[in-house]
Every structure is written in structure tokens, then in C-alpha cells.
Amino acid sequence: MRFWGGVSVETLISGTMEEVRCQVRHAFELAKRGIPFILGPSHSIAYSVQYDNFMATL
Fold first, then answer.
1. What does pTM read for this prediction?
2. 15, 52 from 7: Cα distances, Å
3. What is the pLDDT of residues 3-55, one digit of tens each?
4. Which of 18, 22, 14, 15 is nearest to 6 (CA)?
């Protein structure tokens, strides 16, 4: 089983780049503990996602 997530769509839309980076760091901390995941908000990127926040995720 894998978990898909780590970055909320709401944060990508209205959050700051630092909030996005914080969520990405948290997801990687879970991965270090052996919890498998696919990093991302969902299967697609919402239309209103801020470009800078998307790039911060990458």
C-alpha cells in the first residue's frame, strides 16, 4: 500500500512557498520512517495552483 499526498491542494493554491516546503519536508520525514508514499497533491495539478508553489514542491 502506498499513500498519495504530502502536499495539500489548498496550500499550493493559497499558501506560501515556505508552507509548501514544510509539507514536502514532513512527507520525506515519513518516508525515512519507512512509510511509502507518492509525493503530490493528487493525480493532477489544479488550475489555480500558484506556479511558485508548484516549483517549490519540485
1. 0.75
2. 11, 14
3. 777 788 889 999 999 999 999 998 888 888 887 777 777 667 788 889 999 89
4. 22
39 bridge partner residues: 5
DSSP 43: S
pLDDT of 1 over the 70 cut: no
CA distance 58 to 46: 15
**What residues contact residue 41 under an 8 Å CB cut-off, 6+ apart?**
5, 7, 8, 9, 12, 49
Strand, helix or coil for residue 4 = strand
DSSP string, 5-38: EES-HHHHHHS-HHHHHHHHHHHHHHHHTT--EE
